[in-house]
């Protein structure tokens, strides 16, 4: 709905709720920026190697493990799946069989976007798909092998499988935070409606997540292009 409609009912819903709505919008954008950039940096050290009269290695670098490794994909998967029962139920309600039609009405009630069950199922699906997509796109064994082949190691961790297990353990922990965050973003419209009572305009958490992610990625791309051309970047560390 339009912003004008939201302010047109300010007198009936209490102006304080509009302030809460605005604060929530700012907090959500700030949280998305923070989580999108947040990462756990794993120190990778390289042993010194001498070839001829030259010495190689002996330096350290960092492997960033992002909290939100999966991006917006889990929300897209989850919303596609959670809307399917309602679509099927709408068709089943048109059948002459009263038992099937009654069951379809029950499904429609359970998967009503305003219901607690819908939001709970949606939230859990987002968490599940976050872990699934992260496991598909990030392979700790492959990363550990590449580090080992290049002569690198994680301080205090043996190269090879122990390194892979360590990366997997760290990734599992930080993914939980990212998954819960994505789940809250997914059900944000329901949370906003519950806290403010505003129904004419909802905070589209998924839309904000996509827009902020695109803006941040564009900024990184422009920064990289500026650095390549020996200009001073506009993003300061």
UniProtKB/TrEMBL annotation:
Gene Ontology CC terms, in alphabetical order: membrane
Stretches that traverse the bilayer: 15-35, 72-92, 120-139, 170-188, 194-216
Keyword Hydrolase attributed: no
SUPFAM superfamilies recorded: Preprotein translocase SecY subunit
GO terms (BP aspect): protein transport
InterPro entries tied to this protein: SecY/SEC61-alpha, SecY_dom_sf
Keywords: Membrane, Transmembrane, Transmembrane helix
Signal peptide: none
PANTHER family xrefs: SECY/SEC61-ALPHA FAMILY MEMBER (PTHR10906)
Family recorded in the similarity comment: Belongs to the SecY/SEC61-alpha family.
Protein name: Protein translocase subunit SecY
Organism, as annotated: Candidatus Beckwithbacteria bacterium RBG_13_35_6
